[in-house]
Amino acid sequence: MKLNWGTGIVITIIAFIAFIMYFVITMSTDHTYSHDLVTEKYYQKELQYQEEIDAEKNLNKLTSKVTVQRTDKGLKIELPKEFKNKNIEGKVFLYRPSNKQLDFDIPISTSNTYLLVPEQRLVDGRWNIIVFWTYKNKPYLFKNEIVY
User: How far lies 71's CA from each of 57, 81, 115, 116, 118, in Å?
Assistant: First the structure.
């Protein structure tokens, strides 16, 4: 049987479509490729984005900054010197982009001058740290990415 150029083009297009459809079906049905949103309440968090911008601006106005250090006991997060031993309310949220089951948050206690995240809770790899606190009804926000 002799094939002309029109038949060859049609066969090539059909083979290409079959190739693409194979990968689309494989990626959508295989559970190892499941992708989640960054947060469950993605659109509600988007509406609060201006508040986060204002809180980051408040942090940038301070003379000292938040420091994050890896120690032998864990991850040491130290708030700016203006807030030591003062009545602040807030939390530290550690977000693991590769596995949402490892995400956790810790409330900020004012008894210590720093917050220590135990090493047992941290798995090696990339972490996003979000420190949010309020002092005298003024919000402050610190975001950082680390590799632990």
Answer: 29, 20, 12, 9, 10
Give the tens place of pLDDT for each residue, 49-59.
888 888 899 88
Give the Cα separation of 50 and 52 in Å (integer): 5
pTM above 0.90, yes or no: no
CA gap 70, 148 in Å, rounded: 8
Q: In what order do the strands lie in the sheet with 74-78?
A: 67-70, 74-78, 114-118
Say how far apart CA 130 and CA 140 lie, in whole Å.
10
pLDDT computed for residue 14 by the predictor: 97
